[in-house]
Input
Amino acid sequence: MKHLVCGWIGVICLLLLSVACSRKEADYTIAVSQCSEDDWRAQMNKEILREALFYPGVNVEVYQAHDDNTHQIKDIESLIERKVDLLIVAPNEAEAITPVIEKAYDAGIPVILVDRKINSKKYTAYVGADNYEIGRKAGEYIADRLGGKGRVIEITGLRGSTPAVERHRGMMEALKAAPGVQVVASAEAGWFRQKAGEVMDTLLDAHPQVDLVFAQNDRMAIGAYEKARQKNRAGQIAFVGVDAVAAGVESVAEGKLDATFIYPTGGDKVIQVAMAILRGEPYQRENILSTALVNRANARVMQMQMKHILTLDQKIELLNHQLDDYFLRYSAQTMFLYACVVILILAGFLFFFLVRAFWVKNRMNTELSTQKQQLEQQRDQLQEQRDQLIALSRQLEEAT
Ligand code: FRU
Output
């Protein structure tokens, strides 16, 4: 009986403790493999992590490959081995990264491509802008800005990455409608600011007359602008970029860049699609985010909006910290409550045993005193019988 009761107390304590201590385990692990690290990607990562906060039980890990195919392949290989639940990948170069993404897809891991694409249909969804469309819009803008006539230099991103190819194709297509606009040179700067400066140095020497530089991202546009300024040529050239995150918009507002095009980061959308895939809900395979022109006319307004969004972001972060604090306090209080319940239950058991012991003792006392009374009665009877026997024996003696 004692053992049974002790066993039950143990089970109750264990149950209560496990409920009190159970913090929700991560239900899903989502891994993000970024090809590079820069302001644009930092913005996307921030959006991804912030959106993931709205899905409890989701753990997001971000890896970045430093613009190195081998590094990115290694990252993805190890994520396949770890069997993460979902992969989000911005492939550095399409050809090099395609096989490892196919491998992940074939292993049953859903893959969402962001911003850059691969040479295969083996992916689950794509989230990003239409880079061909961005190139086309840039081409139309260039033709309009130059009044249908002028000399253009193009500085491209990494040519093995799909946005570089698509933006180039789009721009060339749009410029077909403006035969007076000539692309006099096209050079690769791998998406880097410094490399764009170096490339620009040579191109400026080779081309004494340049009216506009279209760099496929703002970082390269700023690098090209700075080189032209060093060579006292910036005043005669309009610089157009793509991305429109903080530095790009600021450069437009300051008049360094003539214009840029929004290249939406869409981190929140990526997580929404990821969660739909993981939960088996309907989702769209191709999620095309839209672009827009940022020029002198709207750059300041855009800066104000970005500032406002930043403040809201900070507030969300603060709220998240406060939530963490509340959760900690709540856990401590819950633990305390459970400890009180356990103590109360133990006290209850103790009280029960005490009352029971008291009751048993009383009952035994009563039984003992009854037995004592009976024994005393028997003793009295025996004494009486003994006295009678003695009397009898005396009578017998006297008679004989
Ligand atoms: C960021 C970036 C952007 C560019 C995009 C193209 O890493 O270089 O500047 O628009 O990648 O994939």
Observations:
- The pocket of beta-D-fructofuranose is lined by residues 36, 38, 40-41, 115-116, 157, 161, 163, 191, 217, 219, 242-243, 263 (CB under 6 Å).
- The chain has a mean pLDDT of 93.
- Residues 131-264 form a domain with the Rossmann fold fold (CATH 3.40.50.2300).
